[in-house]
Amino acid sequence: MVLDDISLAVKPGEVVVVSGPSGCGKSTVLRCINGLEQIQGGRILLDGAVVDGASKDIAAVRAKLGMVFQSYELFPHLTVIENVTLAPTVVLRRPKGEVESEALELLDRVGLKDRAGDYPRQLSGGQKQRVAIARALAMKPEIMLLDEITAALDPEMVHEVLDVILDLAREGKTMIIVTHEMGFARAVADRMVFVDGGAIVEEGPPDEFFDNPKTERARKFLHTFEYESVR
Amino acid sequence: MAEYLPLFWQAMLLTLRIGWVGILGAIVLGLLVAMVVHFKVPVLRQIAGAYVELFRNTPLLIQLFFMYFALPRLGVPISAEACGMLGLALLGGAYMAESFRAGLEAVEPIQFESAQALGMTRWQLMRHVVLPQAVTLSIQSFVANVIFLLKETSVFSAISLLDLMFVAKDLIGLYYKTTECLVLLVIFYLIMILPVSILGSYVERRLRYGSFGPARA
Fold first, then answer.
1. Contact across the interface for A75 and B115, Cβ inside 8 Å
2. Which end of chain B has fewer CB atoms within 10 angstroms, the N or the C?
3. Does some domain include residue B41?
């Protein structure tokens, strides 16, 4: 069993950061929420409705959840703007012109309006990830699920991506963020959730979590970011 | 020799007509079979597998003979032309299925998830995300298959279709102009296939995976 004893309620407008050692099940939590992972027991509720990855209505549920992957996963055969407009036109069946002007606004917001006609392979990792964020936002999701979105990026590109997310947080977007960027986590989180061994070990406000972790496991985990033992 | 040209021209048009319908059929059939095999559709998958093996491992000539001579006896009347189209579609479908399947397998599984996460249904993500990439990934073997199928049309004369080979053999039999006729035969096959080959490698260059869009400076 990968996950056990996970109980998490996220309020509208809240930013929850999930952290923990690699392989602890952080990403699996996100994948369960939008039904990409099958669950053997327990329930996931979105606005009071059950999320079931095997049901026919799962596509409609996923349309309300914006997911961004570590490896961007842009569609390589489509241009930047086509990547952003595809789901709103195909899934929501909205008129193309309207969707396109919204997409340009979103691209402008992530600083990539001038790259609208380019193909993903012409972009850097940070730019690809910003397009992926715009693509998720184009569906006007109720919740954004961000799965280690900076883990594959060079350090200098991490910032340009996280800036976009901080901006979204200020705007009041509900987000569940899995990340190893502890400085960013502290800045963006309303609540920290620490997962280890497939269970929630500790949760609380970020200042409390970072300054006075309650559990030994969280202390140990946070300690790995201080490099004192290496010195 | 000039008086033979219209005959060869007519024969080439016939070959092209049968060829293009047959190849179109092969593409549709190939896509369907590739999806059935790739998504492991029960029962259909076994049928598809048997079909691919049967048609890839028997000569077109024998498939055509079977359809042309055996089907009418089984109560299915079929014209030589329809037989040529059907034969080409069935043979080509088996080859196309294999190359499309390889293309489907080469699409990163996380691309499915990426499309699913945007709320796309299975059909939508196949149509807009997976198939375009799969076809692009299989473009090289796809072009090779088209050329192969056009060349295979040279056995059509065996079921009394007035194709290029038929005309050449006929003229050789009548006038003994063996060399001239064979040279014309080669030239007309080149006229037919060379453009496909050139267009194919152009498309290949443009579409090869990872090189969508203009080349990076």
1. yes
2. C
3. yes
